[in-house]
Amino acid sequence: MAYVAVTGGKEAIEQSLKLLEIFRESGEDITISCIKENMGLLIDKIMSEAGFYSREYAALALKQCEGSVEEAVFLLRAYRSTLPRNYYSNPVDTSGMRLIRRISAAFKDIPGGQILGPTYDYSHRLLNFSLMEEKSQDRTEQLLKMEPGDEEISGEDIHCGRVTDLLKADGVMADVEPDDTEPFDVTCNLLTFPAPRSARLQTFARSDAGFLGGIAYSSMRGYGAVHPTVSELRCGYLEICVPYVLGEEEEICIGEILVTEVEALVPSHTETEEDFDQMTLSGGYGLIFGRNENKAIAMSIADASLETVGDTPSQDEEFVLTHGDCLEMSGFISHLKLPHYVTFQSSLDRVRAKSS
Q1: Whole-angstrom distance between the N-terminal and C-terminal Cα of the chain?
Q2: Which are the contacts of 103, defined by CB distance < 8 A and separation ≥ 6?
Q3: Rounded CA gap, 239 and 91, in Å?
Q4: On the CB side of 328, how many CA atoms lie within 13 Å of its CA?
């Protein structure tokens, strides 16, 4: 594809960047702390698609690019590529998650109970006009008010066993064979097909939430073969540990990350569709940075879809894995704004030649 220089390119670009700063700074100044503390779900979305866990830098990227998710992801991935990799963390056992939310759509009563936690699922979708006059001091005073029964809350960390462990104990769910192969790193290696499952899950975790939701929606509507039941949705904090430099049998905790995890139940059929074998979790898993429930559920459905055979888009591994990256997607679309003078003139000359 041939590009030519734009007339007055350097000067025009410099003026464009100055104008961009004027647009960005035209409103009230928003601090990084304000963005980080008040736009938590947006921060989580950006960290997920960037594959970079840093609330501070995600907020900085948002401020720098006027709230554009695609640009913020671009900035974070570019910065991430400059960082050295000093350690690889040890595998994390998510059953030890310090929970803030945990529900099951498969069972009403589960050990530890349903923990609703922070969610918009049960809120009225009505505009709250009082927020237009809300001040931070008023919000702080409201949060500090003691409600009846609050004094009974212990404040202890919440840890619960898995719902799937109960199903395995009852013999209605097949055990998944442990996979000890080295995880495939999609940030360092070229993705080839068929892709290992670790590569699939990494790609899904970094995929655009809207694209992944569309793939899952198409599968559930009949353009696929998966309509699972959410065995368990968890949101909470996980400790991240690295091997101790003087002895790999020991480890050092370097911090916590907030994640959302989903396990989906997908029945496996026998020879007749009326009969069921054991349920299986071989393709129904999602784990995403932050509070990101719809994307985690969509990830579990997309993961399960690729375990089935068919000719729908959601079952096409290459289609699903190569079109969901928000950075590649937006980059390929935005390149159409670059000069295409030569290629278009060539097409125009052919049209004129045919019409003459």
Answers
A1: 27
A2: 114, 115, 116, 230, 232, 233
A3: 10
A4: 9
Q: Does residue 313 contact residue 223 with C-beta atoms inside 8 Å?
A: yes
Task: Measure the CA–CA gap between 84 and 175, rounded to whole angstroms.
Answer: 38
pLDDT at position 57: 96
Longest dimension (CA), the chain: 87
Can you list the alpha helix ranges (DSSP code H) found in 114-245?
A: 136-144, 163-169, 197-205, 209-220
The total number of residues written for the chain in this structure: 356
What is the pTM (predicted TM-score) of this model? Answer: 0.86
CA 313 to chain centre: 20
Residue that has been written with the tokens 């900085």 in this structure? 60
How many CA atoms within 13 Å lie on the side-chain side of 146?
6
Contact between 18 and 25 (Cβ < 8 Å): no
> CA angle, corner 104, sides to 102 and 108, nearest 5?
115
**In the chain, which stretches have pLDDT less than 70?**
1-8, 27, 136-155, 268-283
pLDDT at 271: 47
Q: What is the pLDDT of residue 43?
A: 96
